[in-house]
Design a protein that fits this description.
The complex is a heterodimer.
Chain A lengths: L1 H13 L7 E5 L3 E4 L6 E9 L4 E7 L2 E12 L2 E14 L2 E5 L3 H4 L2 H6 L18 H17 L8 E6 L3 E8 L6 E11 L2 E14 L1 H12 L1 H25 L1
Parallel strand pairs in A: 2-11, 7-8
Antiparallel strand pairs in A: 1-3, 3-9, 4-7, 4-10, 5-6, 8-9, 10-11
Helix pairs in contact in A: 5-6
Chain B lengths: L1 E4 L4 E4 H18 L4 H10 L4 H25 L5 H28 L2 H33 L19 E4 L4 E4 L1 H17 L4 H12 L3 H27 L4 H24 L2 H24 L6 E3 L4
The chains are: A alpha+beta, B mainly alpha.
Amino acid sequence: MIRVVALLAVLFAAAPLRAAPIVVDLSEHLVAITAGFAGAEVLLFGAVDEPGDVVVIVRGPTRPMIMYRKSRHFGIWVNADHMTFEDVPAYYAIASTRPLEEIAAPTVLARNEMGVENLRLDLPRAKASPNVAQDWREALIRNQQRAGLYPAEVGRVGFLGDRLFRARLALPANVPTGTYEAKVYFLRDGQIVSAQTTPLFVSKVGLEAEIFDFAYDQSALYGIIAILVALMAGWLAHVAFRRA
Amino acid sequence: MQIYLPIAELSVDVFLLLGLGGAIGFLSGLFGVGGGFLMTPILIFIGIPPPVAVGTEANQIVASSVSGVLAHWRRGNVDFKMGGILLLGGLFGSTLGVWLFAILRQLGQIDLVIKLCYVTFLGVIGGLMFVESLRALGRRRRATAARDKMHKHTWIHGLPLKMRFRKSKLYISALLPGGVGVLVGVLSAIMGVGGGFIMVPAMIYLLGMPTAVVVGTSLFQIIFVTANVTFLQAYANQTVDVVLAIILLTGAVIGAQFGARVGAKLRGEQLRILLALMVLVVCGKLLYDLTVTPADLYSIGGGE
């Protein structure tokens, strides 16, 4: 512990004197969800001053999330209990140069939420004992992993020489919209030397965005148009097949 | 080819959707039902959120019912007076249903209620239809079977507000079709169905309508009730995905035309047995899913 504190002190003292030890950027900052959207790949690249390890964490926007647990009533499985997690990242992925446990000690990993198991997902304290809370937490992660939103595998950050690194960030087709952040940590000897954050926007564009906005902003008109389209289509089909 | 659905917020293969629409459309043309009772569960199986599946399916049924009703209208098989009474009940019921839907969704029980409704109604209707059609087939084989009395007088005929329905050759209380309409309307909103699979048997067995006008008349009612559901779901819950609806209905209207042609060549009892079997299969599958221990007891209820 003392060593850690000492090291941190050295780091903080040294920080202003050094040039930015890490620079990062993305191949694109906007992931556009269009009609043909089937997931996207964004290239993250950067450079460091000296050899070390790089860990990349991509997080989606946080939001409250309700979870249900089923239990059997009269032979049927029913959502009986529910819990609301306050700030759940809609997406979470991590990539690193080496396996996480080789890069840093568990305490460092936990403090920086490195790895899905270290995500801080808080439940309102009053509602659950620690054991029960842990079950709900694990269930949330499991569900998100099944949906492909918390990839279970740690991605790879590759070095080109000693200074340049790159990582491919693959976003699935069901990726939620919102503002993401890619946080890049540079570690040496198991300690974080510096970190850089770069934003990534996932949003619907073009026709998809217009339909979505229209459906929410002018719901009544949207409903009427949906009906008219259906009436037209039905009539067209009738006419087409009467001729044939 | 993948396409991103703007309201469902996920991407699905276009040809899968077209194929589904076509297959269900074929069945709906064959049996004269909307096909929603098959399509909605299948949409849920392929990952469309249940509320979006229900809202969108209502929209799609509007289209397939229009093309169906026009064909029946040309043949004079629509009882507009009966349809009008069914419709009044249907509009009331579907408005009530959308409101219930929103409440159940907040309580996190909408999925369960959707499935329980399916199991109950599909089980009862499918079972009744199956038994009845088997009997009808048996009667036909025996050939000597005594014909049912034309007019049985029961409590049903004691209800007030009697009306004459010329096309259906009936003189019954308007409360009957009105009540059927309300029930179908509620189910239409909650289950994302036209309700033909309930209305058609109810019209035949409960109201005693001639089979020839049943399908056309039920389609006529379904158009307006599902239009009402579409509007209200879009307005209150934002769960109608037009892109999904258009793809499904493209497949469905084409499939329905072929289905209607094949259906014209099959005998009534055979058709009903087939429909009954299909209804029972869907029912069994849903019931199985409700009773078998789920792979994961926990599920995410969406961010509010």
